[in-house]
Amino acid sequence: MGGKNNSPPPSLPHSARGRTCLAGRRVRHLCGGQGGGSEEGLHNLMDDLDRKLLTEIQRDFPRLTEPFPALGEPVGISGDETLRRIKKLKEDQVLRQISAIFDTKSLGYKSTLVAMKFANEQLDQGAEIINRHPGVSHNYRRNDDFNLWFTVAVPPYHSLEETIQKLHELSGALRTLILPTLKLFKIGVKLDLTGSHSEALDSKEDIYDESRRRKAPPDLTEEHIEAIRALQEDIPLVERPFEEVAKNSGFTEARLFELLDLFETKGYFRRFAGILHHRKAGFSANAMVVWNIPEEKQDEVGEKMARFPQVSHCYKRPVFPDWPYSLYTMIHGPKVEDCEKVVQKIIQAAGDWPRRNLYSTKEYKKIRLKYFTKELDEWWETVGAYCNTPLHNENKPVPAVPGTGEATHA
Question: In terms of Cα–Cα distance, which of 235, 226, 310, 220 is closest to 272?
Answer without folding.
Answer: 235
